[in-house]
Amino acid sequence: MKPLTLTPLQNIPLIRHGDDLADIILNSLHSSKTDLEDNDIFVLAQKIVSKAEGRMVNLATVTPSERAKELAVQTEKDPRMVELMLQESNAVLRTRPGTIIVEHKLGFVCANAGIDHSNVSPLPFPQNREKDEGAREEEEYVLLLPENPDQSASNIRAKIESTTGKRIGVMIIDSHGRAWRIGTEGVCIGLSGIPAVIDERGWKDLFGYTLRITIVGVADELAAAASLVMGQAAEGTPVVHVRGFPYPLREGSLNELIRPRDQDLFR
Fold first, then answer.
1. What are the pLDDT digits (tens) for 196-235?
2. What is the share, in percent, of the chain residues with pLDDT greater than 90?
3. Packed helices 21-31 and 149-164: angle between N→C axes, nearest 10 degrees
4. Strand, helix or coil for residue 228
5. Nearest to residue 187, comparing CAs of 134, 230, 141?
6. Is the dihedral of CA 175, 67, 135, 138 positive or negative?
7. Do residues 93 and 267 make contact, with C-beta atoms less than 8 angstroms apart?
8. Domains of the chain (ranges plus CATH)?
9. Which residues share a beta bridge with 241?
10. CA 190 to CA 223: how far, in whole Å?
């Protein structure tokens, strides 16, 4: 098995609505003097995809419904945030002060519909903004997940492949909590050109035993590794170049990772 190498790309600018992420990735590769090879993969943080696609929402424009107001009291949250969570979700599954667990419209279960308040600003350098009457509540923004992360990954992949002539994969990840365990980790929320799962049923182990139930969530495994390299705060490395992925590339989709409701024992 070849080594698996994950390298954070440098010189990625702060992303704004309308930026071409494929061009930005290619420019970063060029500046680092890295040659792209077949079967390389790019892992992108959800935030930069959402920002490029204009998924930023000004909370001042949100009018909470009665349901949102009720949940806001129960969970001690901003009712405008709760309204966005309801709009982005199929169902509310659990609540507690500070947290709302939902089934997102994309199909997975997550906290607060994946809506993010950190590292979000319509301005290029929010840390330099003067704290005067211009920094009003009207300037409070949050970031929604991409509407169709599989399609977002596919668009970026198509542009890079057409420019370079190389066959690659692209994955979009986010940080999610996990039932029964403390701490968030990177998980895949969209992908193109790579498998989301590898079905090892029927494979033999070292002692000749035939595997019967082993299905590996390889996209989530890679997402967790890439998240370690990206960091979670002010690192500024939202794209990771991956070489040596130990499985053949193929077309994949987020739906491979979503457990069907009739197989979910915990709802």
1. 998 765 656 666 666 666 678 999 999 999 999 997 655 5
2. 74
3. 50
4. helix
5. 230
6. positive
7. yes
8. 1-48+148-258 (3.30.1330.100), 56-144 (3.90.1660.10)
9. 7, 42
10. 11
